[in-house]
Each structure stands twice: as C-alpha cells, then as structure tokens.
Write a structure and sequence with these properties.
The protein has helices at 2-17, 108-120, 139-142, 151-159, and strands spanning 20-25, 34-39, 44-52, 61-69, 75-82, 88-95, 128-129, 165-170, 174-181, 186-193. It is of the alpha+beta class and 194 residues long. The chain has one domain. The relative contact order is 0.12. Keywords: Signal.
Length: 194
C-alpha cells in the first residue's frame, strides 16, 4: 500500500501544476475584446475569442478560433461563430501552416511569429463591415464561380444595408467574407477574393 501512495501523490502534484491561463489582448483601437486561453496541459492548444454583433443587432454573437496540435506549425484550427443560444452559424476548418505563402523559405521561429500575429488580429474591428454587401455589387462578381442556388440568400443580405460582414483569412492569400442569412438561418459566403 505504501508503494502506491508515492505515484498517486506525484500524479496529483503534476495535475495541479497544469491548467488554463487566460489573458486579454488590446487591439489597435484600444479595445480589449479578444480573449486568449492557453491550455498548458496539452502540447499546443490555444483559443482566441471575441463577441461581436453579427446575426442581429440586439445581442453579440460568439466568435471562436480554436487551434490545437503538436505545435503551432502542425496544428489544425477551427473558426466558429455561434449565436447567444449556442447555435452554430458558421464553421471553417484549416491547417495553420496554410496561412503562410512559402513556409519553407523562412525559419520555424519566423513561421511561428507570423501565424501567431495572424491569430492575435483575427477578430480585429477591421474584419467587420457594414453593409455586408455594397448595393452596387453584383452576385456574379462576388465569386470566381458563383453557385446560382446561393443567389436568393445573397440578395436578401444585400437588401439589408445593416447586415454585417466578417472577413477572415482562407489560405495564405484568400479572403473569405461571410454574413448571416435570415433566410437560411446561418452564415454564408458572400464574397471571396485571392
């Protein structure tokens, strides 16, 4: 029995040393609205989050970017937008290394620095725009290969000049813009450029 106490005590001690750390970042406009949570027990696990008006103007939706893997360069990321009831409005999954144009031409430290900078500014105010779609924009010009099935929801968003656009990185040079569609009750892609 005495031989079992030492390993159990060691496990308890190790478990109490790990945990979650949370910090708040201040963006360029002095707003402290992005929360970064670090899980110190996992190999690499970061969560960036903020709240912003998106699906309606009465309550802010939750924007979360979760990054996990063996290290930041070998991680997968999930961007999620949920309303105040917890309903998933939008989800986008990607690998972190895809954010760099030519990862092999720069050092691992520089890769880590660049990816971290992208994530720290993922939810800055410049990524949210009103109106979501300019009234002069045409559906056919918003995408290189538009899907005609998306046009009714896209036109509905365009008609609402108070609709909010969220623009995020897609790959190393792509910019995907999404907005909430009341018709579909979810966020849809409204514009893409690379």
């Amino acid at each position: 029995m005495k031989n079992n106490i030492l390993p159990i005590a060691l496990l308890i001690l190790l478990a109490s040393c790990g945990g979650n750390q949370s910090s708040s970042n201040t963006n360029d406009k002095g707003n402290s609205d992005t929360v970064v949570k670090t899980d110190t027990v996992s190999l690499y696990n970061e969560e960036y989050s903020t709240q912003h008006y998106f699906s309606n103007t009465q309550a802010k939706d939750n924007f979360t970017l979760k990054v996990s893997g063996s290290d930041i360069l070998k991680s997968k990321a999930v961007l999620e937008i949920k309303n105040t009831q917890g309903d998933l409005l939008y989800q986008y999954k990607f690998t972190t290394i895809d954010l760099l144009i030519d990862a092999k031409s720069i050092s691992a430290d520089e890769q880590t620095k660049r990816i971290t900078e992208i994530f720290e500014h993922y939810f800055d105010g410049v990524h949210f725009k009103i109106p979501a779609i300019d009234k002069r924009e045409k559906f056919e010009d918003a995408f290189s290969n538009p899907n005609p099935a998306d046009k009714p929801a896209w036109e509905e968003i365009k008609a609402n000049q108070k609709a909010i656009r969220f623009q995020h990185r897609e790959g190393y040079e792509g910019q995907a813009s999404v907005a909430y569609s009341p018709l579909l009750k979810k966020a849809i892609l409204i514009h893409y450029m690379d």
